[in-house]
Each structure stands twice: as C-alpha cells, then as structure tokens.
C-alpha cells in the first residue's frame, strides 16, 4: 500500500473502510422533534464555551434514515441545545445514539458528532407517532406526538429555515499519548433540502436517568411543541468555527 493510496483512503480500516467519502444524501429522512424548556444551569454546564444559551430551549429528536448513501438504513436519537455562536442562532448537538456502526464512526471522525451505540426506535402506533430509546437494554427516553394532527404545508418556508439553521458539534480526538490532538467546534448546514411533509401536534417526553446515557441530565420543565418531518437532504462536510488548541 503506497503513501498516495493511504492518503486517498476514505476511512479506517483501510482494508475495509467503515464508510466512503461524502457528501452524504438522505432520502425520506423522518423526524420526531420534541421541543421543550429545560433547566438553565444544566444547559450552561453542558454547553461548551464560547457558545451561549439561546433561552432554555432543548430539542429531543428521533430520526429514521431509510436510505442514506454510504451509511445505509438506520435510526438515531439525541438531544440538541438551542444556542448562539457569535450572536448567530444555532443548534448544539449534546448527545446522539444510533443502531448502526458506519454513521456512528463516520459522524464522530468527520464532524465530531457525539455518537454512541444505542437502540432508538421511531414508529407509528395507531394514532401516535412514538419514539423510544433503549441503552444497555433499558428504556431511557420515550416520546409521543399526535400523528399528523396539523399540516404545516402552508408554512414550509419556516420549517425549511429551521432545518437550514447552523448546527454545531464539539469534536474531540486524543493523540497517541492520550492528550488532546483535535479540540474544535465544527459547524455545518444541511443542504439541498426537499421537504416532503411537515406536521405539528401535541407531544410528551419522558426521560430516565442513566449514568452512560445522560439524556435526563437535561430535564423536561415544559413541553413547547412537537414536529413531525419527512425530507430529502444532503449532509455536507463541515468547517472549523473555533479551535481550542490554537
């Protein structure tokens, strides 16, 4: 294996890469988003400087990826914190749990997504859009929303604006001696979004404390609203917003 072959590789292990090069296209990506108010002290503790909280707004999400280039078919769940980067509104990814190795590895290595292996499950049960998250065989999150209560077809522009919002991750990779090699805030914007459906409805969320799946560290104080979305979109590469080692 030559130096040029090594430097042209997409990911480890080079003999059988975990994922190909991007960007990555998602078809019929389905979301359950439960927006809620949480504890301001808990938000501040989890939000890395120099990001600032944008109110006490937190979003718990479930996502079903039926068709994603390079990553396959999988499900994902996690928490985003509404924040500001130099005055610009953004969503900070605090934690994510997936049931598939390639997007878990690729997400961590490329963008710094805070991904761990878990068992998210998004499905429709009769009249309810239902999201569950299990970790170590225990249910740690359970979210529900009335199924397609109110169409947002008349307001797709506002929904698209929210989907195009700046997203931010904290990417941390240690060096071979255990010290920090990469410590960055990474930003990206979803691209080429085709919104196929958007609905609003009543929602509820229950979180269970777990030492290795700390979704309950951002407790629910007040449910704000629920959203159900279906869209095609592209996840591009990101850019470094802030380098802690510079």
Describe the structure.
The chain is mainly beta and 246 residues long. It has one domain: Acetoacetate decarboxylase-like, CATH 2.40.400.10. It is 13% helix and 56% strand. The chain contains 4 helices and 15 strands. The strands form 2 sheets. Strands 1, 2, 3, 4, 5, 9, 10, 11, 12, 14 and 15 form an 11-stranded mixed beta sheet that branches. The chain has a 4-stranded antiparallel beta sheet with strand order 6-7-8-13, with no helix packed on it. A hairpin with a 5-residue loop joins strand 10 and strand 11. The mean pLDDT is 96.
Shape summary: globular
Outline the low-pLDDT stretches.
Answer: none
Q: Can you count the beta strands?
A: 15
**Cα distance spanning the termini:** 33 Å
| Number of alpha- plus pi-helical segments | 4
Our Rg estimate from Cα atoms comes to 18 Å
Give the oligomeric state: single chain
Strand content: over 45%
CATH topology: Acetoacetate decarboxylase-like
The CATH architecture designation is Beta Barrel
Overall CATH class: Mainly Beta
Task: Name the helix and strand elements from N-terminus to C-terminus, one letter apiece.
Answer: HEHEEEHEEEEEHEEEEEE
Measured as a percent range, the helix fraction is 10-25%
* Number of individual domains: 1
| CATH homologous superfamily assignment | Acetoacetate decarboxylase-like
């Amino acid at each position: 294996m030559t130096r040029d072959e090594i430097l042209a590789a997409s990911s480890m292990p080079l003999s059988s890469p975990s994922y190909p090069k991007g960007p990555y296209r998602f078809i019929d990506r389905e979301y359950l988003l439960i927006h809620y108010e949480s504890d301001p002290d808990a938000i501040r503790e989890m939000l890395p400087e120099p990001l600032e909280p944008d109110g006490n707004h937190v979003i718990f999400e479930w996502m079903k990826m039926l068709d994603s280039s390079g990553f396959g078919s999988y499900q994902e769940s996690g928490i985003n914190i509404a924040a500001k980067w130099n005055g610009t509104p953004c969503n900070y990814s605090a934690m994510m749990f997936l049931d598939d190795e390639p997007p878990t590895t690729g997400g961590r290595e490329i963008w710094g997504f805070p991904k761990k292996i878990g068992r998210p499950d998004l499905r429709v049960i009769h009249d309810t859009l239902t999201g569950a998250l299990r970790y170590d065989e225990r249910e740690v999150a359970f979210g529900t929303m009335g199924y397609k209560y109110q169409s947002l077809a008349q307001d797709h522009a506002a929904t698209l604006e929210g989907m195009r919002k700046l997203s931010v991750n904290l990417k941390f990779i240690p060096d071979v001696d255990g010290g920090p090699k990469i410590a960055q805030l990474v930003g990206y914007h979803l691209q080429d979004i085709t919104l196929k459906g958007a609905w609003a409805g009543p929602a509820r969320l229950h979180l269970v404390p777990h030492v290795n799946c700390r979704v309950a560290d951002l407790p629910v104080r007040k449910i704000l609203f629920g959203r159900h979305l279906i869209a095609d979109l592209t996840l591009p590469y990101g850019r470094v917003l802030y380098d802690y080692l510079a």
